[in-house]
Give the backbone structure.
Amino acid sequence: MEAFGHSHRALLYSFPSLKRGEPSRDGRLCVPSGWASRLARAMNTPSPDGALVFARDVRKTGENPNALTRAVRRNELARIAPGSYMSRQHWDALNEIQRTTQRARAASERWKSAPVFSHWTAAAIHGIPLIGAWPTRIHVIVERDSSVRSRGEIVRHAVGVDPADVVLIDGMLVTSVARTVLDLAVDATFMSAVTAADFALCHRREARIEKHALDEVWEKRLPFRGHVRARRVLDFATHLAESPLESGSRVNMHLLGFPAPELQVEWRDYRGRIGYSDFFWRAFNRVGEADGRAKYFDDALTRGKSLKQILFDEKIREDRIRALGPGFSRWDWDIGMNPRRLKPFLLAAGLPIVPRR
């Protein structure tokens, strides 16, 4: 078990009237105004706090923007997008979700009108985990009748969006979590889309959404390209998956033809509650646990426990469940996310492949 991540505060916003530099309803500017001090810091010690630096700001100071190019060559700055830079040290420390968010911020500040970020870019801004490589291009939604095409680093989806399905996060307009999941359900892989939907619904997240919210945004958008594909993702999604590994494992089990397991089944013995299992096949009396590295090495999940203590606690937990009679199988990312490895692993555990009707 490896818990899904954090949540972000978002504000509903009607976006058509919002232009670059205007304040949002909560009083924040869509573009940070402290470019001068930011640039001064960057020129002395390039972007020490992770702030973006823009070539246009260099020009406003009368400096030659070629200084930024030279800083890139010296490996002091990283070029994030055309005319946008960040300190190399800070950029290298970011994960893929954070890098995608910074690319979106760079794109947002270059445009006169605020874009509405969508799909993978919106997922990154919301902190939604996905499975697979994060695209380096920025995804935005434009009106259905727009003649502007995707070009360069920008992918434009001419599908339109209801203002009610747009939120404001840190000065950027983003499709809501529900709309983001729906867009991914249309255009992402089944596994990645299910992972996003499971995260949005996860019962452990304070900012979770309910299943009916996904159903409503799907129904409101009908008819649309990919609605059957999206419906399949929404129907398969669950609030009981607690990590991308659990979501991905469940998708692979389904695609391979194994029987669907029960999720988060509670176990008790004479000493009281033991805990919950990720998967349980009642008909075969088999428990399954999907454990990623974060369970043992992420400080937010280990809560100050040593690795030895975590391993010991897991052993006691597994022993108590085994004492109740079920078989017990535990796998990691390399098995759960690889159908060729997961299939023989589950077959060896006594689970059959059920012929599809």
